[in-house]
Design goal:
The chain is of the alpha/beta class. About 45% of the residues lie in helices and about 15% in strands. It contains 15 helices and 15 strands. The strands form 4 sheets. Strands 6-5-7-11-8 form a 5-stranded parallel β-sheet, with helices on both faces. A 4-stranded parallel β-sheet has the order 2-1-3-4, sandwiched between helices. The longest helix has 20 residues. It is globular, with a radius of gyration of 20 Å. Bound molecules: iron/sulfur cluster.
Length: about 350
């Protein structure tokens, strides 16, 4: 295990730490086989975890697809709680574990099922598109889910005049820009009318990712001043002006593929810092700048040590009401059918 991790992480993780991490990872892999478990790892996991124990790595969409096909007894989801919930929604007979109870998400907790019911009452008949970064009871109230990689395609697939798009304000604004739709945030601004017609096609909600909202246009300008040859990649949860000033915007997996397929003097990823480490480890010849003061406290809750405890004690088991699960499943499956 140590040699396998060293081959990728020698320049990223100090050797003494790598040896300790390798011991934990080896024990996790032994227990994983003994308990007939599978480990899914999100792209934001710290390098020592990302490059050792997951059977599959990816973004929310890829891991959702994978979770639906798992035939092992236990799914350990190295990601935050809403992701583990999505695995349970798609594969309910499996025991799904999330290694830390504290792995929440500012976007997921920005909206409740009651908020969605209120929005539906205010805009009757308007379909609701819900970002995958939400809890099961919110998904259950909605028509279709989306991820950052298929948000625009999901909105376009509905072919309706108006769509409620929740809960990420910046993703909604970026989708509006991408699809040429006008957007309104009823909790932020008054409803505008033009000759009796409502002047918008997207109805948003002011939820934010506490990581991506921290990147500013000033950051982009500062980086470009110092490194004029940098290629900047921004996640669509970043502010629209940041996305516009970047060279590329896409989901975490789209960013990874972009770096793999291009050759720039240096890259900067405007997303959780661990992903820059993971890409740098896998592509040592590609210089990677990082803004690592911006970290996701929830993703960082998931460590190798917690994952080992999760497997040893079968904790923390993801459970949900069956009626909520079935309704949430409908909106997740509709999304998967769009692609
Ligand atoms: S990075 Fe943002 S969206 Fe992702 S889990 Fe953390 S707070 Fe939530």
């Amino acid at each position: 295990m140590y040699r396998q991790m060293q081959a990728i992480l020698a320049d990223t993780v100090p050797d003494f730490e790598l040896k300790l991490k390798a011991e934990v990872a080896a024990e996790i892999n032994r227990l994983k086989a003994e308990k007939n478990a599978v480990i899914l790892g999100h792209n934001y996991m710290e390098p020592a975890l990302f490059h050792s124990i997951p059977d599959y790595v990816g973004d929310s969409l890829e891991l959702s697809r994978k979770a639906a096909q798992i035939d092992k007894d236990i799914i350990v989801f190295c990601g935050v709680r809403f992701m583990a919930e999505t695995a349970k929604i798609l594969n309910p007979t499996k025991k799904v574990l999330v290694p830390s109870e504290k792995a929440g998400c500012s976007l997921a907790s920005s909206i409740t099922a009651a908020d969605v019911r209120e929005l539906k009452k205010k805009y009757p008949g308007v379909p609701v598109v819900t970002y995958i970064n939400t809890y099961a009871d919110v998904k259950a109230e909605t028509d279709i889910c989306c991820t950052s990689s298929n948000a625009a395609a999901v909105v376009e697939s509905l072919k309706t005049d108006r769509v409620i798009f929740i809960p990420d304000e910046f993703l909604a604004r970026n989708v509006a820009r991408q699809t040429g739709k006008r957007i309104i945030f009823p909790t932020l601004e008054p409803t505008k009318r033009n000759g009796g017609e409502l002047e918008y096609e997207l109805i948003g909600w002011p939820g934010h990712c506490e990581v991506h909202e921290k990147f500013t246009l000033e950051d982009v300008k500062n980086i470009r001043r110092q490194f004029p040859d940098v290629v900047i990649l921004a996640h669509p949860e970043c502010r629209p002006e940041v996305v516009e000033a970047a060279d590329f915007s896409g989901s975490t997996t789209a960013m990874i593929k972009y770096v793999e397929k291009t050759r720039a003097p240096r890259y900067l990823l405007l997303t959780e810092c661990a992903m820059g480490d993971n890409i740098a480890a896998a592509n040592p010849e590609k210089p990677m700048l990082r803004l690592c003061s911006v970290r996701c406290p929830h993703m960082n809750e998931i460590t190798l040590e917690d994952t080992l405890e999760a497997l040893r004690k079968d904790q923390f088991v993801v459970e949900m009401d069956e009626e909520i699960r079935r309704r949430a499943l409908r909106s997740v499956e509709r999304m998967l059918a769009v692609g």
